[in-house]
Design brief:
binds coenzyme A; 137 residues; 3 helices; alpha+beta; 17% helix; 5 strands; elongated; Thiol Ester Dehydrase, Chain A
Length: 137
């Protein structure tokens, strides 16, 4: 983290991994310039899969979105940072908590938590059936 991000006027999570950063494009917005919830859900699903992918060391599938909260709207020009933390490792599944922060208005920098969610991923085999997670290093 460089000195510019150290001065952000918000407490970013220190117990979570920064797994993805993305900026929405005009095609992701409605007529008012707000970003579609479905686009944000897709980004959260992608970001949420990063840590389970490492744990499963192979193919995974999203089995459940246990919770999804849109706290604040996302607007064109926002830079989104997606953080994830593993909440539970089961026999075949991994549950993660994801938080999304939007960095906006560079002239008077503002960082707000816009979304949080909890998702579960299952390790699957070549037939798409659940498989036990491999031993962790
Ligand atoms: C993922 C899939 C292979 C799981 O198969 P399944 O027969 O339902 O799995 P099981 O009942 O054996 O459960 C497997 C694991 O998922 C967990 N799980 C199942 N349903 C769950 C739910 N609704 N919420 C949280 N965890 C769930 C189980 O607890 C189990 O975890 P564990 O082994 O760590 O204890 C199957 O449901 C599937 O293919 N779903 C479609 C996935 C997909 O296409 N996702 C993309 C979005 S369209």
């Amino acid at each position: 983290m460089n000195s510019a991000t150290n001065t952000l006027p918000v407490t970013l999570p220190t117990d979570m991994d920064l797994v993805m950063r993305v900026m929405p494009m005009p095609s992701d917005a409605n007529g008012n310039g707000d970003i579609f919830g479905g686009w944000i859900m897709a980004q959260v699903d992608l970001a949420g899969s990063v840590l389970p992918n490492r744990i499963a060391k192979g193919r995974i599938a999203t089995v459940a979105v246990n919770q999804f909260i849109f706290k604040q709207p996302v607007s064109m020009g926002d830079l989104l940072s997606l953080y994830a933390r593993v909440e539970r490792i089961g026999r075949t599944s991994v549950t993660v908590h994801v938080e999304v922060y939007a960095e906006r208005n560079p002239a008077k920098l503002e960082v707000v938590k816009v979304t949080e969610a909890s998702l579960t991923y299952v390790a699957i085999d070549d037939e798409g059936k659940p498989r036990p997670l491999p031993p962790q290093d």
